[in-house]
């Protein structure tokens, strides 16, 4: 009986979400719209439409216009759209920065963001010495086993970091760090040093190094990484290329609106 009740509750929640989306689409299409018209479009009672609008209004997604009782899209939608636009701007601006850095270093350069517990690569360029043709754009990679992921993790507060690492840490190679205390200590060093490295932690024979990219408020919004074969991207060379990578990241951050002191 509990399973049936749970299924009914889930179905009801999905239906409510679907109706809320329909309300937003209706307002976007028609502009100012009264509750009677909204209820009619949804095929529901006015009381049901009123509850939906109250929830959307509480989140700033719709607003009631004065005493007329009509509703319109709220500024909360602008906030959500701004977040999506920011990601698109980052990917667009990042392509040029990735290409310039890849040409300078001769290695593959990627920009990644954190999303739902993983790192997603949103831009990539391959340098002249790159030996792989793999396209990482759009690929989801683990936070704990990549240089980009470590940069993104190091920038999070403790609560957010715990949420991102709530699952069991998968061991991709014998060198993958899966001990949480050991990983926490490494992330503290990343935050202090300003860069992270991965030595055969995701794939045997591959090394990588990453630096943070910052948004207008100074928050870390992405990680810029360079990766290559271990025989060429040695620990010594990684230390040598951190400076040009950090400079490229500063230039991209400035384009996003962040200017360091």
List keywords for this structure.
elongated, 3-stranded antiparallel sheet, WH_DNA-bd_sf, 6-stranded antiparallel sheet, Beta-Lactamase, 8 helices, Arc Repressor Mutant, subunit A, 261 residues, alpha+beta
Overall shape: elongated
- Helix tally equals 8
Biggest β-sheet strands, sense, barrel = 6 strands, antiparallel
| CATH second-level architecture of the largest domain | 2-Layer Sandwich
What is the CATH C-level name of the largest domain?
Answer: Alpha Beta
In terms of DSSP E residues, the strand content is 15-25%
Number of domains: 2
Assigned CATH superfamily of the largest domain: GAF domain
Task: Provide the residue-averaged pLDDT.
Answer: 84
Q: Helix-strand pattern, N to C?
A: HEHHEEHEEEHHHEEEH
Q: Cα distance, first to last residue?
A: 62 Å
| DSSP helix fraction | 40-55%
CATH topology of the largest domain: Beta-Lactamase
Computed structural class: alpha+beta
Backbone CA Rg: 23 Å
pLDDT < 50 runs, ≥5 residues: none
Could you tell me the number of beta strands? 9
Domain HTH iclR-type: 14-75
Keywords: DNA-binding, Glycerol metabolism, Transcription, Transcription regulation
GO molecular function: DNA binding; DNA-binding transcription factor activity
Pfam families: HTH_IclR, IclR_C
